[in-house]
Design goal:
Strand order of the largest sheet: 2-1-3-4-5-6
Shape: globular
Radius of gyration: 21 Å
Structural class: alpha/beta
Order of helices and strands: EHHEEHEHHHEHEHEHEHEHEHHH
Distance between the termini: 14 Å
Number of domains: 2
Helix content: 25-40%
Amino acid sequence: MESKKILFTGSTSKQTDDNAWKRARVKRIDDSSIICNSLRKQGYIVERRKIKWGDDLSQYDMAIVGVGCFGSNNYSGDIFNSLYALHKIPNALVFYEDWKIDSNMKSFSGMLKSGALEKSVSKKWSNGDYFYGGVDNPNFDINIAKKVIQNLNDGFYDALIPAFDWGNKDIVRKIIKSKNIYNIDLSPYVVENWNLDLRPEPQEKKKAYMLASLVDHRRWVKKMQLTWPVVYYGAKSIKDSIKLETETDVYNECGKYRVILCPEYPHSGSGWFRIRYIYAALHRSIILTSLNDLKALGIPYKSIERLSDKELDEYAAMQRKAIFSYSWNKDTFDKKIKQIIDEKI
């Protein structure tokens, strides 16, 4: 049987370039690479690339299209071009990779307000280049772009999201409105990519909190009213934040702390993918996250700083058991992504 041909495109280099993650400051294999690698391994022909308005896309059996936030520099390069793929390939699957999906959807609805799209399309940088890539293409059609944005806003397309099997996906559905939402647990390939030690040696843990993120979450931390020290990793905007070279370094640091912080997001309780859950479980550290996430995992909230050492160990073990009860392995991932694609083709 002839192999099916899939277009994998999107709004950022990490969605359109097999090697983009290798150039990033923190070199963790990205979600798009994991998906593409799995599909190629299973015999699908996957072309991962940028596209532009006017391209002939008739050779593809389906597309996976990453979208992002209008108004963001991160997505300005190809977000309009990604809309063209959704227009041309009827059975496209929208990949909502960014955890800021609430902001993304608000940016879609904002573009539908009177004159907003026209103003955005004409926006330029100080050097005279257009802010949004592709809008100066003679084939660009603002009316088609508006229709696709309306479709996204209405949840017209089926959605692919990075998420664990636990959690209420209706929480995400209320934001992106898609009827059909497929979730994928990326953890087995993240762990494999960095050859992480799955049986780390027990070590004495600091009674402190670790927060590894490129985003500044100090406002959320302040709301938590923590008294143990909070040690930040990764965020450029935090002066004393510790910079690490690789994802392996991040993982190894997790073993030194009693508690790993996982800040709350608008879709908490949905099981949105955060690798820190897996890192904490592997190291037998506690994950401190939102009440909604703990409830979704079936884990009671405990006032961590009041627990004895024995109780801390028991709470970490309870969390570890719950997290691993939902975790995928590589075979499960391959099987699930194949099922999703075969449903769409």
